[in-house]
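Protein data sheet
==================
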Amino acid sequence: MSRVIRWGLLSAGNIVSQFARDFSVVENAVIHAVAARNGENARAFAREHGIANAYEGYEALLADPEIDAIYIGTPHNLHFEHAKVALEHGKAVLCEKPMTVTPQECEQLQSVAEHRGGYLMEAMWTYFLPPVQKALRWVQEGRIGRVCHIKADFGYPQFPYDSKKRVYDASLAGGCLLEMGVYPVALAWLFMQQDPTDIQVMARFAPNGVEDDLSVLFNYPESVAILGTSFRCKLQNWAYIIGDEGYIAIPDFWRAREASLHVLDDRVDHFVDERATDGFHYEAQAMTNDLLAGRAGSSVVTARDSLAIQRQMAMIREAFADDA
């Protein structure tokens, strides 16, 4: 591969900084520019991460003919708008999760990508982590038998409460479902590849009516998934995929560094990812490779995956909407 994929970063927020740090190990790619609404923030970000170009505002970034791919790390409610305009500028798009805030937006965005022949991928970095991929192979190889239960949660306290804080701000699509609940929902979809036949949700709410604690039960024809997310407390943040012949445990599954395979009380296999990074480089490398190979989309986080995750989060919202 002789060509280098040139990336642009749309936003200079915290998650974009993590992405930029990990990018140093991505091969055949370079971060060409970063853009932020505040020009000084963009320039400071560029200095910190050794990026050659910094833009005030996003239009200059999108219009830069040197850029092949755009990574979007803005608030959830802006993802649709920013991804759409990036695709319209002919850029490949890696958009932070959740890629949109409704299934309808997701479908529209995917339609734009298809119409323009563009590359669009949701930045569900967890799917690319080697321990999660190893767990998926163990299941596919039949090493835990038939999947009976999935348990996954993700929660961190978000104190003090402030209705203007991004995670609580309803105008910015705040709430624990989109902010953190997307991880356990995505994990359940990865291993089940089907919608639940029915769901039960127990919800708690912040003073402004935004959900800040959810317990969710997905009922499938032959199995169940018990999922949780919270702004009120630190949850265990592990995932368990439990079959009738064994189970898999993934500590801190959303940023997984290891996975263990158990039969009854015995650990029979163990995988550890010895990476020196947080793990964002896996998705960046995969997308870079896709672009260099001329592939139309990702085989790891597909359009079907992103739409299913949106659809299931909409089901959860509908289940607790009347209680808000």
Remarks:
- DSSP finds nine helices and 14 strands in the chain.
- The chain has two domains: 5-124+279-296, 130-272.
- The chain has a mean pLDDT of 97.
